[in-house]
Specification:
Blueprint: E1 2-9, H1 16-29, E2 35-42, H2 44-55, E3 63-67, E4 81-87, H3 89-92, H4 97-107, H5 114-122
Parallel strand pairs: 1-2, 2-4
Antiparallel strand pairs: 3-4
Helix pairs in contact: 1-4
């Protein structure tokens, strides 16, 4: 079972339950049957700080991913900690689904390029 913990620190109204459901569907389609995932919605300033601290770029962005176990082989009985996806509603607006999918794919080890583009198309929200 995928356990999704959501937090809304953005000050905006966000669809936390819908985000958790989308994450579970994408992860299941990618072959991840169990694990723990965090999804945080943050304000523009917090996102700018996170991007500055972790990527050295002083600007807000739509999504950041902080992977942990990904698809790594784990010892039996050790729960899979996928990591965290951080979204900024002030940047993504109402179109948060595609950035969430993008962030989830980064947690699973995909980098920008054709393979990720293809996986994003598979999971495109209509």
């Amino acid at each position: 079972m995928i356990v999704v913990e959501t937090q809304n620190r953005s000050g905006a109204k966000v669809a936390e339950a819908e985000a958790a459901d989308l994450a579970r569907r994408v992860l299941a389609a990618e072959g991840i049957a169990d694990g723990e995932l965090g999804i945080a919605f943050v304000a523009r300033e917090e996102m700018r700080q996170l991007k500055g601290e972790h990527l050295g770029i002083d600007e807000a962005t739509d999504v950041l991913s902080f992977p942990l176990d990904g698809r790594d082989e784990l010892p039996e009985g050790v729960p899979r900690a996928l990591g965290d996806v951080v979204l900024c509603p002030a940047v993504v607006g109402e179109e948060w689904q595609a950035p969430l999918v993008h962030g989830l794919l980064h947690l699973l080890g995909f980098d920008h390029g054709d393979e990720m583009d293809g996986r994003e198309q598979v999971h495109a929200v209509r």
